[in-house]
Amino acid sequence: MKKGVFIISLLIAFYTGKTHSQEVSPIVRFDTTDILIGDQIDLNISFTMPLDYRVLWPHYKDTLTRNIEIISMTPVDTLINESENIVEMIQSLTVTSFDSGYYYVPPVRFRYQPIDDTVFREATSIPLYLKVHTMAVDTTQPIKAIKPPLEAPLTFREILPWLSIGLGVLIVILIAAYVYTRWKKNKPLFRIRPRIILPPHVVAMNGLESLKGKKLWQAGKVKDYYTELTDILRNYIEERYDVMAVEMTTEEILEGMKNTDAPKESVDKLARTLVLADLVKFAKEKPMPLDNDISMNSSIDFVKTTRSEREIEEIIEKIRIENGEEAEENMEGSSSVEALEDEGSGETKKEEKK
Asked: Last residue of a domain, which of 87, 108, 133?
């Protein structure tokens, strides 16, 4: 009786193992089993199992076996066939060998398990062999000398460091030559162009020329015209005579001008212009067009007759000392001022004749 039970158990175990082995299919194979030393081939690994199974995939590092190195490996890919209720997992390893010989690759072991089971089973692939051979050598031919290495042409990247060094040396030489030359001539290393401060009368005449070009009173902006005109005169008086004209009333300005060397006739013209400007700005006076022209011409005459000749000579002399002959070019801006002064003087004479 006991002997019969034992035989039945063996048969059940054999049948169960056979059934499970038929449910999974491990396949491992090379692209080719004969390679030249250093060549690369793929080792294709696949494992087919039912959908409700799971498997522990074999893990590799950098070698497959001794003398067979792994160059790269793809991720494990999964192909599902729902019609047949199976899944196939695939991975490819690129391998090579740098030693000739005949190498044995042991079977790859897969541990798998049905989802509803707690026991892992094992399936193995068949063992593989890989032959690695060297180049065929014809021993009947004479031995030849080793050829020297070929010389590669120079590239721009190789030349660039030398060009940079050469350019740097050239720059240092030029700088040294410049410093020595300036030192030899007892001159400063850097030539600083002096800042030209225009005298007050030049600033005022430029402002009057700009105001004439705007044609404000011709456009009906009489108040704006007189406001800008008196601002130019106030700034000029403050810079020329140190009279704080910008903050003063007309009466205070005229009182302050009594303590200056300004000609009385020029001060009288200034007074008429400032008084008329106050009437326009504060009493809404509407002067005639002729009055507007006279105010401009009177302002030009006032600036012209009160300008400081000594200040102009000092500035020109300073520029000539610093820049030599360039002084004439730096004073080009004054030519337009002189032209405006001549024009204003001519218009004034015409008004006096009338």
From this structure: 133
- Per-residue pLDDT at 45: 96
Name the pTM for this structure. Answer: 0.41
Q: Tell me which residue of 211, 193, 236 sits closest to 326, measured CA to CA.
A: 193
Higher pLDDT, 313 or 54: 54
195 located within any domain: no
Beta-bridge partners for 96: 40, 69
Measured in residues, the chain has a length of 354
Domain containing 339: what range? 200-353
* Residue ending a domain, choose from 133, 168, 186: 133
**What are the phi and psi torsion angles at 49 (to 5°)?**
-155, 165
Strand partners, 132: 35, 101
Is the predicted pLDDT of residue 92 greater than 50, yes or no?
A: yes
DSSP letters for 89-121? EEEEEEEE-SS-EEEEEPPPEEEEEETT-S--E
Give the amino acid at 149.
Answer: P
Return the bridge partners of 130, or none. 103
